[in-house]
Design brief:
alpha+beta; 7-stranded mixed beta sheet; 5 helices; 24% strand; disordered N terminus; disordered C terminus; signal; EF_Hand_1_Ca_BS; DUF4114 domain-containing protein
Length: 312
């Protein structure tokens, strides 16, 4: 069955490649870096394959973007992917007031329901670029390895700006090119900002949030608010017929998993995103220690001592 699916992918990709015009993605240079195994484990445990994402990570009280509290360089490292498509991934930056008083309908000038990259680029204060023209890992239609890292923009991003990401569905056409249909909206592009996505109503604004139109799960790896785990869902979550091959979303948000970080390391601090929970084993250990502490405190309650109890 897997062989048949892979063969189908190749045939369809050939048809798409032959019928689409190629657009140079100008992807940045990839440098492979070492990522701590604990971070990789946490990222994969937080976004497991074929399992609906933790609803807490899609809580619309959290923002699906990062705001810089100081001038910084931003980097993205590939962790893993679980997609059936050959997707392309990029970033966009925006100013605090870029989307003020704009609805999705205002940006969607051709009223297609899909915001193209050309339409996004027309918004004042917005800049975008591709990061990975082929988001497929080695052995699965691409060459990406865990730790393959790129810089988001080739320059420092100014304090006060925000950065988010987009994924163009099945847009890769070979080499460092993508289908030019991403410029017209004929290929679906999913954005970090909920109101830009195909599932969003045309009346939605920047502040409008809908869990049904969210395509990124974004969370700090711990309370230091430095390293960010980001997962993407690459399928229209409402209308399977709009997806290539009419595939329904499995809601796992691990079609692409990354680590996003900055230099200086604390430039994302204060961004309103979720924080990953402790791994289950760590939670158990902490729970045992806390329980032990309570037992010790109870036993010692009537026997005061000058010794300090070890607390966690």
């Amino acid at each position: 069955m897997i062989v048949l699916i892979n063969a189908l992918r190749v045939i369809i990709l050939m048809l798409v490649t032959s019928s689409a015009n190629a657009l140079n993605a100008n992807s940045p240079t990839i440098i492979n870096t070492t990522i701590e195994p604990a971070f990789i484990t946490l990222a994969k445990d937080s976004l497991p394959e074929s399992t609906a994402v933790d609803p807490a990570f899609l809580n619309t009280d959290f923002n699906p973007y990062l705001t810089l509290n100081q001038d910084a360089n931003v980097y993205m490292s590939f962790i893993d992917e679980g997609a059936g498509y050959k997707n392309s991934l990029g970033y966009f930056t925006f100013e605090n007031n870029s989307f003020t008083d704009l609805t999705k309908g205002d940006i969607d000038t051709d009223s297609s329901g899909i915001i193209s990259l050309s339409e996004l680029d027309a918004v004042n204060g917005v800049d975008y670029g591709f990061l990975y023209s082929n988001l497929s890992k080695s052995g699965s239609g691409g060459s990406l390895l865990t730790g393959d890292t790129v810089q988001v923009t080739d320059a420092t991003i100014s304090a006060g700006k925000s950065v988010s990401f987009f994924l163009s569905q099945n847009a890769y056409t070979g080499g460092d090119t993508v289908s030019d249909a991403v410029l017209t909206g004929n290929d679906q592009t999913f954005y970090g900002l909920d109101f830009l996505n195909p599932e969003a109503d045309f009346t939605y604004e920047f502040g409008s949030s809908s869990s049904n139109s969210r395509h990124t799960a974004m969370l700090f790896s711990d309370e230091t608010e430095q390293n960010v785990i980001m997962g993407f869902e690459d399928l229209n979550r409402v209308d399977p017929n709009s997806n290539d091959w009419n595939i329904a979303s499995d809601e796992d948000f691990n079609d692409a998993i990354f680590m996003v970080y900055s230099d200086p390391v604390d430039a994302f601090g204060g961004s309103n995103i979720a924080t990953a929970p402790l791994p289950l084993m760590t939670q158990s250990i902490v729970g045992i220690i806390m329980l032990s502490g309570l037992i010790v405190i109870t036993c010692k309650k009537e026997k005061p001592s000058n010794r300090r109890l070890l607390t966690t």
